[in-house]
Amino acid sequence: MALFNILKKEDSTPPQPSDRPVPQHIAVIMDGNGRWAKKRGLPRTAGHKVGAETFRTIATYCKNIGVKYFTVYAFSTENWKRPEEEVSTLMNLFRRYLKEAIDTMAKDEIAVQVIGDLSVLAPDIRELVARCNAEAQKRPEFSVATLCINYGGRDEIKNAVRAIAQEVQAGQLKPEDITEDTISQHLYTAHMPDPDFIIRPSGEIRTSNFLLWQSAYAEYYFTDVLWPDFKPADMDAAIDEFNRRNRRFGGV
Ligand code: IPE
Ligand code: IPE
Ligand code: MG
Prior knowledge:
Helix 5 links the parallel strand 3 (110-115) and strand 4 (143-151). This protein has helices at residues 2-12, 33-39, 44-65, 84-108, 123-137, 153-169, 180-185, 232-244, and strands at 25-29, 69-76, 110-115, 143-151, 197-200, 219-222. It is an alpha/beta fold. The chain has one domain: Decaprenyl diphosphate synthase-like (Undecaprenyl pyrophosphate synthetase), CATH 3.40.1180. It is globular. Keywords: Magnesium, Metal-binding, Transferase. Its cofactor is Mg(2+).
């Protein structure tokens, strides 16, 4: 029994940061919460609650191993199609985590920010997002954890095109001066580097409208692990795989 306890204790010790190189920007499509709950005979909302805890654990782990940017897909522009109860559970989770992030940001040394089309969110959530983003902006030295809420890659590009068109119409920009950088600078991620590595748990092999422009040269990693089960060791395995990839960016 004593031996069992020792083993169990060692087992639950989180892996320690190692010397392995890490990507500068890791993004995750947090998927599989519903199936995780279904497997256990629980409502889908239970999966979202555990998935939110996983976000906290993995964001902290990424910060500890030196990842500067950790970005997660938390709610897509298409997720409004889900049952009202599920959407409202997710919104309540955002409320809780944003409040907590505002209070603990300085202690945790993680700048938590939100991107997406926030205009349609409830006013109290918008207010929390504004406070959270303002706190994050004060701390450029911290690692950054970005929650994508009501985010859609096509919606983001459409908004950028609109903004650029308005600048052209106002005579502030000439069409021939529009570069790839102009487009990047009009996306929600204007202040961030592109993701180096995009992880999708849950066995689905698609992007589901995530970071379409920014992912042009990202490395993708797909795993059958469901997001609520995703552990620091799974992140280590993913990063090891990233480190074995040969990124050529079109060169030789
Ligand atoms: C991801 O888990 C969370 C959100 C999309 C908000 P899902 O809820 O999509 O879980 P599955 O894919 O149904 O298992
Ligand atoms: C993608 O997951 C969106 C988020 C993780 C927030 P979905 O579960 O919505 O994607 P599909 O429907 O399987 O493509
Ligand atoms: Mg899903």
